[in-house]
From TrEMBL:
Residue ranges of domain Peptidase S8/S53 in the record: 175-662
Protein name: Subtilisin-like protease SBT2.2
Taxonomic placement: Eukaryota, Viridiplantae, Streptophyta, Embryophyta, Tracheophyta
GO CC annotation: extracellular region
Signal peptide segment: 1-24
Amino acid sequence: MGRIYWAHIVFLFCLGIFLLPSSCQDDSDGATTAVYIVTLRQTPSSHYYGELRRVSNGRSKPGAFGRTRFHKPSTFRNITRTDRRYGSYIARVHDSLLKKVLKGEKYLKLYSYHYLINGFAVLVTQQQAEKLSRRGEVSNVVLDFSVRTATTHTPQFLGLPQGAWSQDGGFETAGEGIVIGFVDTGIDPTHPSFGDNNSEHPYPVPAHFSGICEVTPDFPSGSCNRKLVGARHFAASAITRGIFNSSKDYASPFDGDGHGTHTAAVAAGNHGIPVVVSGHHFGNASGMAPRSHVAVYKALYKSFGGFAADVVAAIDQAAQDGVDIISLSITPNRRPPGIATFFNPIDMSLLSAVKAGIFVVQAAGNTGPSPMSMSSFSPWIYTVGAASHDRSYSNSMVLGNNVTIPGVGLAPGTDDNQMYKLVHAHDALNNNSTAADDMYVNECQDASNFDHDLVKGNLLMCSYSIRFVLGLSTIKQALETAKNLSSVGVVFYMDPFVIGFQLNPVPMKMPGIIIASTNDSKSLLQYYNSSLEIDGTSKRVTKFGAVATICGGLKANYSNAAPKVMYYSARGPDPGDSLPHEAEILKPNLVAPGNFIWAAWSSLGTDSVEFLAGENFAMMSGTSMAAPHVAGLAALIKQKFPNFSPAAIASALSTTASLYDNNGGPIMAQRSYASPDLNQSPATPFDMGSGFVNATSALNPGLIFDSSYDDYMSFLCGINGSAPVVLNFTGQNCNLYYNSTVNGPDLNLPSITIAKLNQTRVVQRTIQNVGGNESFSVGWSAPYGVSLKVSPTHFYIGSGEKQVLSVFLNATINNSVASFGRIGLFGNQGHIINIPLSVILKISLNLTVS
């Protein structure tokens, strides 16, 4: 879920993306129409070929994990042709049904879905939707809903050059042959992060990928290449509402926002691309898997966000095209109620994608730090929260009274060892100005209001008010004013009404600084006012006595304790705590770098953040930035282990995650918006999942926990009252799953989460050795109030073999507060497997402890 802009604040996480009404007016008869997603009972085409998976090297081999079989690319192409014919047949079935049910009535079919779900999106009235729902072949009718969006140094912080990249030949081959599909705001195909003009190491053609590149006036022929292998856009649901703005949003895969370009570059951008912003060089950028391929499925837009009908169409197409990984930096605007938490069109499409062998990554959301604020909750989706890394940019200014005031701003400093006069905007008004009583004149938006001679060669002081936050005033315009007045630089002080907000570094071409603290701003103003000499008659300033120098904020600092879970990163457990099943799946699964991330930006994006206009790179923050880090690292795992199932990739990432920061202490979690570093405590699994991603160890996991599509179906069937819903969405009867009492703790996940521990519970996990022969010992720390035992405590496991672990939990006290523990498996070949344990609620009456 959405990025956080450089100088934007917490409550604008999703700037420009709002919850929109899902209906519009049919002018012909006044009937209210809306977009509905209709699913049929007939099986989607992926379920016919769901046992077929692609292997990047083209070899045919039996599946090592689950029930998957592998086929040569030629076989896959034959299947694809058959699938397309089946897709055309399904579309005709949809058209026939609509004509039959809505005979003579007006309607508009937007999409036919056939690959991951069998259904269609249609614009109809509520009465027409009810007619469709009464048909025997129709399983479900859901009202469309809105969704929203959720580097130079992070490869080094994650240890990729000496670790994960070096294991398979360096960055020159990292991720080669793997296709990552991005459902986002599109892409800027002209950006060097997505070029394929590497003569020394030319990009291969991924044989298993069958996607195409749309050609439009703003996405011309030749936009795609061997790096950017596919690009499409989906906007039918938005267009029917009359809210699609082609001048801002582009009716093409082109990125009119910047978010999609940024996330694609984080995961898969080319290696060694110079990052130049506002004329300053900030190093060279690289994606996590710089040799992987990019496929873009644009379904989100700057002006309005997006809608589920378009997102499902994008996911469905990505799966048909043959992507290996899907990266989603989006979340629903509203969480579906009750058991519908899992049974929504997006999550059910992604379940079918997982069945087809596609690893799915989703941003956790920027709704933290409140508990139960998660927006991605299904166990088949890998959910990623945001953490910091060790690089930061800071700025400061030194006053003439030797007081140093900290601030932010990616800006150069003033000349060394030279102090400059401070001139407040209100004291620099020219004699002809009519803006003296204008409460906004201090924001420095119009140079004609000020006396050039007073400002020339001095530091101009401007107010940073809520109008900057809302976009009514801009830093860019204030800098332009300072330039026109020949100012040495600009000092922005914080308006006292802007309280508790977090300002990120802002690029400036001239010396400048933003004083983020209202207290520091107050100290600056006190010093300034105390140094003025004012004429008693005219009330004009006769002498400016305050002086200062700006130190500059272009140089990065790498000494920060990191990682730490960012205040905005959504927290677990799953939000549906009213249903135990929904609270018995650990979320997030993991945290990854998401704060202050440099990556590519769409320079021609319209209505962009004001200080990014015309730039090719941006520093962004949010779980949207964390998710593609993991998508790129998953590509490295997929490249090394082409036969890993999605669950196996998830396990490799989770069990090897780090629990400690770069100083050897526990990973901390920020607990508040205001002064987050002063309000933090050790992170729990509900904050960080299994921990912070460890790229190198994930490529050598030793043991994995695997799960299949059938396991997820058994879990869904185990939810009380879910059988009809399962049938509606999947066309499969829960009677097929004999063990339909599988709860969250029973899934073979690399974590254990229990919502209600009533006296005693036994949980089992099956592990498989994907390394060499090894002996393991088992250790654990029990959650508070729980007696814990794991059996066996020692075991030997040969390569390819499996071992069952039994975990015995017994409540020893009454306690309604969540508590946490951990199980560790320690191998004699160096593998360490971490399994987080969470007990959300314990109900234990009249307990006796033997």
